[in-house]
Design brief:
heterodimer; A: 227 residues; mainly alpha; 81% helix; 0% strand; flat; B: 247 residues; alpha/beta; six-stranded mixed β-sheet; 9 helices; 10 strands; 36% helix; 26% strand; globular
Chain lengths: 227, 247
């Protein structure tokens, strides 16, 4: 089995690349969750300006390819921000640019997930919290969001899977993650191209399948007060 | 009504529209301290909307609502402060399902820094004992029956030490055998002198506990009087028709 041989031979370097992939995914998803909560709350705020801002952000991200977003952040923003003292892309770190792109991208989808989660919480919950004298923000934090997060968890894990696979596309800007590793290996031993790419695919497959199984488990265990 | 008692709720010419639909059309009423007022009337008559205007869960289209001296129809009034003093019990309980019974009761007083955690817990246990659920502190709402849920909801409201309690059809979502236990807690509250406004279909409760019964229809108060007068000598045709249907 050629794939097996490739796996064994390059295991350490695959693992280094895998760690990079996971690092990029986790960092991006954490930032995306923050963005998602902010813009998700904008969407349910009932304040027209905030809803508009959230809609524009979400439409731009959903309406453009990730590849173009990467280009804009990596080359475009890097150039624009250089006079301000920031820089990344071809000059600074491509990891930063990749993380920014993926955060912005996943943030838009997270905003929709979080909006959906909040709207799925019964209206009476907010009314009960408010009638006790809790201000809107406290009601959101203590009553609505904890319930929303439980129902959203499977969708959040699903977004994690999507973003994990999207990191592959971002290898384009030279982050040394799994796909990039595959490219380098394939370039160096052309005769084993098939085995190398199958090995790379296997890494993604194992992680994504595990995650989606976890999502399923979580989905079955979202009810309260049962252990 | 004794003249010495303070007016707790004063409603003047209250109007409430949902879009072009006029739900409340000029409601005026005064409720004094310790009074138990039952609102009755057909569904869609505006009773629940009226109740929800008293703590501004519904915005007020026109008119004045003054609770404990605070003009809550004024957008500048700190509505959260006023609400701390007005408990509300809902038809569908609206307990927080992710929190235990004890946490449901202590959430607001602790979060609003009115009490520290130990004293809030102690108070919650007292309230649970009062509603007969002292053994349920660690249960989640999902593990309780409807009647138990509603009693916890009452305890949760009482934890804020309100002067006024609003009840929005508190027994309508309950199985018949559980109605009694909730009404019993409410009777106790009334006997302790709580000012209560109760939207209800429980005519027996209204007859027995209310100081005043208000009959509403199509967004107006049609008739209000003592339970004895309303149930035994109703004056308005619409009241008579309604009572003939429900009694």
């Amino acid at each position: 089995m050629e794939v097996y041989n490739v796996l064994v031979q390059y295991f350490p370097s695959f693992m280094v690349a895998l760690v990079e992939t996971l690092k990029l995914t986790v960092v991006s998803l954490l930032c995306a969750t923050v963005l998602g909560v902010v813009f998700g709350l904008f969407k349910v705020s009932g304040i027209r300006l905030l809803t508009l801002i959230a809609n524009i952000y979400i439409d731009i991200i959903r309406g453009t390819p990730l590849m173009i977003q990467t280009m804009i952040v990596y080359y475009g923003l890097s150039q624009t921000l250089r006079p301000l003292g920031f820089s990344w892309g071809p000059i600074g770190g491509s990891f930063t640019a990749g993380a920014v792109t993926l955060s912005l991208n996943a943030g838009a989808y997270m905003a929709e997930i979080i909006r959906g989660g909040i709207e799925a919480v019964d209206k009476g919950q907010m009314e009960a919290a408010r009638s006790l004298g809790l201000p809107y923000g406290n009601s959101m934090r203590k009553v609505i969001l904890p319930q929303a997060f439980r129902t959203m968890l499977p969708s959040i894990i699903n977004q994690f899977i999507i973003s994990l696979k999207d990191t592959s596309l971002i290898s384009l800007i030279g982050i040394h993650e799994l796909t990039q590793r595959g490219k380098i290996l394939a370039a160096n031993s052309a005769s084993r191209v098939m085995a190398i790419w199958l090995a790379v695919a296997l890494f993604y497959l194992v992680i994504c399948t595990t995650l989606s199984k976890i999502a399923l488990l979580v989905e079955r265990n979202v009810s309260y007060g049962r252990k | 009504m004794e003249g010495s008692k303070e007016i707790k709720i004063q409603v003047k010419n209250l109007k409430k529209n949902f879009g072009r639909l006029e739900v409340l059309k000029k409601i005026s009423i005064e409720i004094t301290e310790g009074e138990v007022v039952c609102m009755i009337g057909p569904s869609g008559s505006g009773k629940s909307t009226f109740l929800r205007c008293l703590n501004r869960l519904e915005s007020i289209t026109a008119g004045e609502v003054i609770v404990d001296g605070h003009p809550i129809s004024d957008p500048n009034v700190n509505i959260n402060k006023v609400r701390e003093n007005i408990g509300m019990v809902f038809q569908h309980f609206n307990l927080f399902p992710h929190l235990t019974v004890l946490q449901n009761i202590t959430l607001a007083p602790v979060d609003l820094k009115l009490m520290d955690k130990p004293s809030a817990n102690q108070k919650a246990m007292e309230l649970l004992t009062r509603v007969g659920l002292a053994d349920k502190e660690k249960a989640y709402p999902g593990q309780l029956s409807g009647g138990q849920k509603q009693r916890v909801a009452i305890a949760r409201s009482l934890a804020m030490n309100p002067d006024i309690m609003l009840f929005d059809e508190p027994t309508s979502a309950l199985d018949p055998e559980m109605v009694g236990e909730v009404l019993e807690v409410m009777k106790q509250l009334a006997a302790d002198g709580m000012t209560m406004v109760v939207v209800t279909h429980e005519m027996g409760f209204a007859r027995e506990v209310a100081d005043r019964v208000v009959f509403m229809d199509e967004g107006y108060i049609i008739e209000e009087n003592t339970p004895d007068e309303i149930f035994n000598r109703p004056k308005e045709v619409r009241t008579i028709n309604f009572l003939n249907k429900v009694l």
